Amino acid sequence: MDLVLVPLHKYPEYLQKCCDLINSEWKRSNTARLRSLEASSDKLPTSLILLKGDILLGHVKLSPLPSVPNSCFVESVVIDNSERGKGYGSLLMAKTEDYCRKTMNISVIYLSTKGQEGFYCKLGYIECMPVSLYGEFKGIRQNDFSISKQTIKPVIAKNVPAPPPMPVNNIKVTIKTYMKKDL
Predict the structure, then answer these.
(1) Is 25's pLDDT higher than 50?
(2) pTM to 2 decimals?
(3) Domains annotated on the chain, with CATH
(4) Which of 1, 16, 18, 38 has the most CB atoms in a 10 Å sphere around its CB?
(5) Which residue numbers delimit the N-acetyltransferase domain (predicted)?
(6) Secondary structure E strands in the chain
(7) pLDDT at residue 113 is higher than 60
(8) 180 strand-pairing partners
(9) Within 13 Å, how many C-alpha atoms sit on residue 60's CB side?
């Protein structure tokens, strides 16, 4: 049976199954998840689903990167838990890259991951600097303020106790690794 990667918005009958699949990995309200999936279109953002016949195997979301022309940010890469370890994740990414290159004229794919760096390295992704999904940070210039330094008076707090010490706990902090691949 052939495996196909198709845009979710052209197969709305898979919306709820796709919602359930993503929520099995990353919990979110059904309503919020469905709204996000319903935003899929021929332009970014686009949700793609991997089908084997009429069985939903996986999902990937492509989001725009306003600060990087001809690129996208890959989110929510997930394969059904019962189908993992069969090469479907690699296939999903390969078909996603083909879709980006051929259908959307995208030349660079970015993503972030926590713990799957080895998987993406095998697929040709390399570590890179973080990218923003929200456009470019322009910074603040001195003349963006209408007040001068002379009008600002320092405030010195008196009789204020020191802040309490930070709690000691066993919370595991995982840092996202940003990766990219030129297509």
Answers:
(1) yes
(2) 0.79
(3) 3-107 (3.40.630.30)
(4) 18
(5) 6-152
(6) 3-7, 46-52, 55-64, 71-79, 108-113, 126-127, 177-182
(7) yes
(8) 110, 126
(9) 25
